[in-house]
């Protein structure tokens, strides 16, 4: 069975990791293979660390980074596979030759390779393997040229290991036919293949064991009549465990494993660098595992660019492109080419998988659509139709746009981070009316691709043209899963959050769009925090029970409904409640589950399991779990938060509560434990399984997030009953009588508000000081103007305080209340 398609982040990570190793290793290539002077050795390695640190720093390297022959040939391998859709040895050989003769002076090719390329050209590529076979007395070259360029092969055939190994061998034979060279190329291909599919939790010892086992399996094919244990690669890789265990110095590693241009001297060094740097390394204070791998590989000296290229490819395939900083990406020659190749490879792999699924279903009676996108695969047709029809209505777009908190926060996040938008290419996923695209243009984005799958795309284009932005905002009427862009983007912006963060499953489309994102690019929003806490609400519980009890009637217009009582309770308690509430109903400090949209896998949204353990702050009956979310826009210039917390202004997302049918009694300081599990369904939503236990009692409920109950009625939120420890009436009048003394206090006269220096506990002084201040400003005591106060040195502030009016030079004042005189939107204070 074919493997699942690897994430595009791993494809890009592998190619860009190899490129970074080549570009950074180029600076140190050819240094003395083994330093005999300890001081020279230490200085060299410190120079390496400083340089790698500089290149991976947030502002990037000081210079444009050039690649060597390693990348020049790997580019040919990648481009040929993508263009031909298979391994074409003749086309690849032609690519090698054309590239060599067009730029050989700039790339540092080995001297002997020119003979092979000249013979290939002179023979008109009649037999592309023959020239290499006659090298070195017909023994062939044992150099590392076949290994240094093999990573694209492992990526392209990442769904078929045997095909990857076969092509790795054949592409090597074009220039290097010696068994050592072939084994090196096959080993690196295997390592990259494994890294593409491996979990990051795979241990160092497991990696070593897998490589040794692989050599045992392939040794006889490449080295006929040679026992595995006597194979030089097997012997060197057998040293890995002790070298890691003993934390052997790099001089010893270089001596035992090699660091030269021969495949046998560089491939083991590259493999060891990758495995060694899976864990922190003494003397290399770098948390970025890809950066650490490249630094260690270069520090082994010798053929630094090739060792770092191979090690970087494996590490990048395992860790993904998230570890390539944006500044380094833009500084490296060839990064854009590799990003485009990665996108094409990923499309090829996806198409290949769809074709395999088509063949596997050929015997079935139902029609199979081999062109189904990720969205179509996970979504019922009826759900998708209803969804896009809903968002194709202007009324729904208006509802979201008029959410002042939502819209203003997005605009502020964009305008506060101009470095992420100005002169950048931006992708707006699920553009709707195009409001976020317009914000990007306000921030001087160069080009915005606004992808919208509903009929709203027509209205979006209308607004784009009417506002004169049709040259900068390109509307694409398509699902992001099906869309094709002419270029990669610097920033992706979207409003993909649904009720309870996860509803509608648009987060998956948002994450899927990362296939268009340049390494180091920005995601707006960047992270999402799903908060939750147990709540107690007898009113809500009684209300739900009352609705369900409708079906308990045994005489409704003469009909007995009670046979549906149980089903009625199940259905009503299966509905999440969408409304808002007072924080006083929360019975424990909340927990949160964080999703990083920049790094999370699309598949991670299929099933989300969150364990919890709450320490109860009150003795109460727990009626369920309350949920809300925050998202952060972590930009280059600033971080902006959008919150749907019950403690913050209300948004159109409200908050969500999941009830349980059988409330749990919990004592103060007891622990409420359990799990909340979200299981994605094809209705663009989730089934929620909530299990909780306290003091030996447990309860479970399963809810359907697709069909919540919208309970919010616009009424002010009330605190829970019994929440006061003192008389609320006494507390109110005490607050009125005991206002804190201050040198500044708000006033409003004739609708105009001011802050003046008075003692609020002294009404007579308060009034007289206000009148004196106004007289000093040259204003009448019966009226006052902002201009008069400005002339007297008063500054514009804001916020209401006390209100009042003037009668015969006497100021009447009282605390501001709902029915009092309206306070103006500005206040004044002495400057």
Number of H/I helices: 32
Tally of strands = 22
Radius of gyration: 34 Å
Q: Enumerate the spans where pLDDT stays under 50 for 5 or more consecutive residues.
A: 358-370, 741-761, 777-831
Specify the biggest β-sheet.
7 strands, mixed
General form: elongated
The quaternary organization reads as single chain
Report the average pLDDT across residues.
85
Count of individual domains:
4
Structural class: alpha+beta
Kindly estimate the percentage of residues that lie in beta strands according to DSSP: 15-25%
Helix content: 40-55%
The CATH superfamily label of the largest domain reads ADP-ribosylation/Crystallin J1
Cα-to-Cα separation, first versus last residue = 77 Å
Under CATH, the topology of the largest domain can be stated as ADP-ribosylglycohydrolase fold
The second-level CATH architecture of the largest domain is Orthogonal Bundle
Please report the first level of CATH classification, the CATH class of the largest domain. Mainly Alpha
